Model the fold of this input.
Amino acid sequence: MKRVKSINSILKGNKELPIVISGPCSAETEDQLITSAIELKKTNKVDVLRAGIWKPRTKPGSFEGVGVEALKWMAQAKKETGLKTAVEVANVKHVYQALNHGVDVLWLGARTTVNPFAVQEIADALDGVNTTVLLKNPINPDLSLWEGSVERILNSGIKNVGVIHRGFSKYGASKFRNPPQWQIPIELKRKFPELTMICDPSHICGNTQDLLTVSQKALDLNFDGVMLESHINPSKAWSDAKQQVTPKELSELVNQLVVRKTNQLEGEQTVELDILRQKINLIDNELIDLLSGRMELSDDIGAYKKSKGMKILQTSRWDEILDKSIKEGHEKGLSRDFVVKFLSTIHLESIDRQNQIMNSNSWINKVFSIK
Ligand code: PEP
Ligand code: MN
Done:
């Protein structure tokens, strides 16, 4: 991906440190925004001031942002502090208004990246414009959709493109407001190694107590920076009150972040790591052998059930496997969550294979020539 240019060079003086984007979820009043900017500048930890001007809210009736008026406050905040500014844009009108007010970074929110029509319209509006664009992941865990949004913006000629990982929607209770599903941004990075990656722990956590852990994890996974919401009076914030920290708390949080020197060591330094990796490789090989053996047994079970006219799924048997494995896993230091996830994946594959065997002679497989 040659055309991706790291936004580090544009937003960041010191490339050794992570990029820090911070500011309120929403711009509320002129005083709130300017005071935020001044306080954040004082911390000396922040590169870019963020604020939501147009707020995509789940339900009508909640605060939907101040609108274009707040762009003047952003311009004023930039003038007074020298901080670069970033706002969310969701349509072409927002793009023009933000650019006209000198906003340095435009970001597309999770509810916009999800819509290829909207992304394409914004990309067309940006054709030939020299600005920086950050793409939040779509709300649903769809890597291709996220990739597609990056491609659309790159195709418009914008070189300074980055992404923001803000976690993915879920239904039901979870530790996270938007579970991170780290494998998705990691896979995106594998596909676009040059892409600047920012993590947004505020929208992942939905609280303040887990922000440090998630921010640190992001840096350890080679993210280039963090976007953290901050507010001069978090409990009184007009949106996302639970997840915002004060500028002082933000400064303390950034202070606690450990920036590991490198992920590439030379020569002898890597011997110890190489040995550990070789051991891991051996275990992975064994796992593949074991899984292959397990699936062969599933095939045999499929054939047996077919010969006896049995159904595939016996939920009591699955409960028994799960309970036993959770207990054994616990004794060996494996979390319940991990055991359930990996056994469920194996179980699904096993059901698929049994299903194929049990239906191998059915008319539908003959028609579509499935073996
Ligand atoms: C935000 O940054 O305040 C926001 C609305 O984020 P997201 O698009 O990640 O929900
Ligand atoms: Mn927010």
Summary: The chain has 15 helices and eight strands. Residues 25, 52, 56, 88, 109-111, 136, 166, 203 surround phosphoenolpyruvate (ligand 1) (CB under 6 Å). The beta strands are 19-23, 48-50, 84-88, 105-108, 132-136, 160-165, 196-199, 225-229.
